Records
---
Amino acid sequence: MFKIIGAMAEFARSLIVERVNAGMRNARFKGMRIGGPPAHT
């Protein structure tokens, strides 16, 4: 039972990662800034 739940969770995580990466790619393509302001050290 735990293996099935683990496999489903892993699949859901991979879908989320794929969606986030596609959104970041799309934002970069549109010229949006990603992240916070540059850090000054």
---
Amino acid sequence: MAKKGKTIFLCQECGFESPKWMGQCICGAWNSMVEEKVVETKEGDPRRRKEAGTGQKAISLKEVQSGQHHRIDTGIGELNRVLGGGLVRGSLCLISGEPGIGKSTLIIQAAARISSRGKKVLYVTGEESEEQIKIRADRVCQEDLDQLYLLSETCMENILAVQESLQPDFIIIDSIQTMYTEELDSAPGSVSQVRMCGNYLMKIGKGRDVPIFIVAHVTKNGELAGPKILEHLVDCVLNFTGERTQELRILRAVKNRYGTTSELGAFEMREEGLTEVENLSGTFLEGMEESVAGSMATAVYEGTRPLLLEIQALTAQTVMNFPRRTTVGVEAARLNMILAVLERKTDAQLGFMDVYVNIVGGLKPEGTSTDLAVALAVYSAFHGKVIDAGTLAVGEIGLTGDLRSVRNGDRILREAARMGFRKVILPEKNAALITDPPPGIRLCGVRTLKEAIASL
């Protein structure tokens, strides 16, 4: 059944509205009036992005101003990098991570640095009291916090009232699973409550041009808790990962409407809070030992910077009917493919060997540029041959044993030279494009896995 509404006549030339048809508009145009039906909208409907009676007219794309040059600097370089340059006004950003990983610490540090530049920040907490937030802020923040306002509340209607009176420039919701609206009778954290509260927050952010940071819980499997509709609703989804027993934390964008999703930020958890890691490659290679079989250095290109990693491999005679394949940081299916190519194209017979592969540091790189290093590390462990610690290998392995080129090989080469590597094994196509290698680096362009092994 169609909704009832009134009929108006709209001039196509100037946009003038009239309750009746006019032959000539006030702008002078003849026969420019077209009939339109306006559906009556309930006043204050939380499902609408704008208030009733506003924003019902389509506008030309040329009239829309880009927000690319109106980002808010968070004061944290690694966070700005992952966001694509800072917070976009009117955007909704969802950050998730395991309990105790440092989500609240990162957010309070960003809030403190934004507020220290004279912008009002509203920190809404549904899990902690104001005193708990104050204790954390005193420990990890050194900025002036006069413009940082705390609100311990879970009712969305009360949060909206405070937001109307305070008019903040940045809002933090910690966490969305604790929020509820009086319009629904279900418990906080339910699918309907999270969806409705998400709509409220989107109305605030998009309607008032205010960036909003939303904290969300994760399941035991590390996936975002709650309905998927929340992940689709927001503009940016950040995943904060790391081992609680280690200091390194990795922030990665899973979804970003205003930037790339391949960028990552690195932090180190210390007593004074999270500090940015500038030399991430050095952190991953810090414990790399010399003259050890099964160890190989490689590189990946994440976002706008190359990262050097250490891959460790171990092979052992199996005692089971089926050999074990255990991997950390490398996809299991990718490892099985590499092992099959090794058995077919080299003398490494791994059918009755347990194989263990680990990327040191806990990073799970995207892409296939680490294939060659994984194969060489496994080959080194199987034969007990030591690979020179000053050698780095990068390349994708095909099913035929050939090597395929990787992107940004020249930048990877410069990063390898900066970290003190002396020899780089890479696909022949990449080597042919590099006419001026950095001093002290010897290029070794190979076409197949066999040639890469022979170059060692």
---
Amino acid sequence: MPSRLIVSRELAELFKLLAHPDRLRLVEELRSGEQDVGSIASALMLPATRISQHLALLKAVRLVEERRAGRTHFYRLVHPQMAGWILEALPFIDIRNRLENAAHIDDARARWSTVPPEIST
């Protein structure tokens, strides 16, 4: 019984960390592989400082890893399959919001369903 409590708490902490739209989009963006902060910021249309803050949180809990090349910092998901969890959650919001947000959900599903060559099995 205590192990289930420990695991439940750990999962709750992970879900809290991912419970931010920018961080979900960031995880999805890193699905295709390693990227630098500027590229991520450009793709997500967010300020680089904001991306850096989110990456620092994800790095602190070892969800992303950093590699430096000179002054450039590159980030990648430690477990790229994490991006698949986001895709697998779409049916839950699909059911709740089908009439209101059908186009948005379909667009996200199409974009996120494309498996990058690096992680296809």
---
Amino acid sequence: MFDVAVVYLMRTDEASPQVLLGEKLTGLGRGKLVGPGGKSEGSETPRETAVREVWEEVGITIDPADLEPLAVIEYPFIDRAELSQRSHAFIARTFEGEPRRSSELDPRWWDIAEIPFDRMWSDAALWLPRAFAGEFLEATFAIGHDNSVVNASTTWSRSAGTNPSFLG
């Protein structure tokens, strides 16, 4: 199981709160809407991975201190163990720059109330609304051959607190 980080950039200067999602242009999940993110490299912490991946995928600069822990989710892929991963999810409300398209992601702002969950991974609708409302999630979502959630285990809390995954 490898580690990844994903960041949900939020802006509230519009009529309603918005989140940046991008259409994945390559690799696993191609065609789905996702938050910018990707695999950890070397000894990177989840925060370091998040900052680097957001820069590479959408050209936005984030201070690691501005990343708010949102979730730690393990994704065992039932029939494809080589894809199994642990995702460290963050929200960033403070950042610099305007999103730009890259070879990996085509970003767009979405009103929180109009997130197209049917275009995202099947687990997103199960946890993102509650996490965006301020709860921290530790979970396992087992993913089947058709990329659906076949089994789920979730634990919710009011904040990441002292979760060691986010202390780096």
